[in-house]
Amino acid sequence: MEKILISACLFGEKVRYDGGDTLIDDPIMAQWKKEDRFIVLCPEVAGGLPVPRKPCERDLETGQVISQDGEDFTDAFHQGASIALNLAKKHNIRHALLKERSPSCGVNLIYDGTFTSNKIKGLGITAKLLKENGINIYSEFDLDQLKTDLHEK
Ligand code: SF4
User: Fold this and answer.
1) What mean pLDDT comes out for the span 60-75?
2) In a 10 Å sphere around its CB, with 0-12 CB exposed, 13-18 middle and 19+ buried, how is residue 123 labelled?
3) Is omega for the bond preceding 55 within 30 degrees of 0, making it cis?
4) Which residue is closest in CA terms to ligand 1's atom 5?
5) CA separation (Å) from 69 to 55, 57, 61, 93, 113?
6) Contacts of 36 (CB under 8 A, 6+ apart)
7) Which of 4, 5, 13, 15 has the most ligand 1 atoms within 8 A of CB, as the residue to mutate?
8) Residue 84 is inside which H or E element, if any?
9) Could you give the CA distance from residue 130 to residue 140 in angstroms, rounded to a whole number?
10) Cα 1 versus chain centre, distance
11) Domain tally, the chain
């Protein structure tokens, strides 16, 4: 059965910066869970960050990932992305279901680095690395597309 890499918060694990989750409420999730398809990872926790933690945003000009008070977490974010890629390779994963708008997992949109809730087109650090390595990335709003692609070889 082909595996899907999934952001741990979408799977219901309480790993977000605020200690919460963003569980996807959709019947297909129960089916994929039953089929044992999911490889679950939070790249930020895997990169060594605690729960809860300071919310961070990507600065697209400098490439850094920073908290609102200016602390630089870039290394931890890259380490988490690298762990995600290695896990994906280990399980021959072609598809990853990732949390939109996250500085790690964002697929189409991320916050713009000004901590003003403004969103821009862009990828999170893990999403970008996975995509660069040929893995198809989907947000929680792309479930129908993932369903279709999963059954195409
Ligand atoms: S890094 Fe990804 S998996 Fe972890 S809490 Fe953020 S969006 Fe969810």
Assistant:
1) 94
2) buried
3) no
4) 16
5) 10, 11, 18, 37, 12
6) 1
7) 15
8) helix 74-90
9) 16
10) 22
11) 1
Query: For tokens 């961070």, what's the residue?
Result: 56
In angstroms, the first-to-last Cα distance of the chain is: 12
Q: Tell me how long the chain is.
A: 153
pLDDT tens digit string along 82-135? Answer: 999 999 999 999 999 999 999 999 999 999 999 999 999 999 999 999 999 999
Domain range spanning residue 33?
A: 4-150
Cα of 59 to ligand 1 centre, how many Å? 18
Name all residues whose Cβ lies below 6 A of ligand 1.
Answer: 7-9, 15-16, 42-44, 99, 102, 104-105
Structure tokens at 36: 């044992």
